[in-house]
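I'll show a sample.
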Amino acid sequence: MKTLGKYLLLIAFLILIVNRGAYAEVPPEIKKILKRGELVVAMYDQDIPPYFENKNKTLSGLDVDLCEALAKSLGVKLKIKLIPKADQYSDILKQLDDKNVDLVAAALYPSLDRSKEVRFTESYDTVDFLFLLNRKTLAKENLKVQKIQDLNKKSVNLTTFTTSIFDPIQTLLPMASITRSEKREVVHGACVKDGNHGCYIDELDYLRWKKKDPAVGLLLDKLKTSYKRPVSLAVHWKNQHLSYWVDQAIKSYKSDGTLDAIFKKHNWRLVE
């Protein structure tokens, strides 16, 4: 028995050494996740389909499944931290200052200003930008628009978001009168107002808007542009190793079909 006890103790000691050695080579931010046994991801406490929805207290969406895949690849569980009253990107990105939050998933798109404060990962989706044209105003002015350049025949009134990082309006339409706002309701309201010609927003915002108010599809015509924005996750600016690992994981999911399966599950790109 003594021999067996010594043998088991030796095995336990060797396992301890191996584990200590293995963890010593793991970057601290990843080591923290492994020790915790959870990948903690902050998300908005509101529906942002197809990325995130909370139906009957069940979380689902592209971001949820992607983060589930990341947690599985790390060999840990996924924990989602819902952030209430996060109305702007800055509100949700502040969650990365919490040492217990590893990632933010909120249909985020990178910008130069935001990249000064956080690290954005490899993109896992792209979203098109649209001109939404007010049918009533165009009809009153007998203005037929089949391409963007058709709007450059006169001074048109358009609205867009102050924070838009892909804003070609002034270049494409130098005669346009542009109103910018940080508030979604202001941009949407101006877009359908009689006398205004429309707005410039991304397709994700349009789909959410149309889902909330189906009449929007009857009031506005869509005119797609060649401009797209990438959608990424965000990590703390100090966590370069975690950022690199997530980049490699997303690239792997793109090549092995994991990401395609997630898109297919949520019928994304087949919405319209």
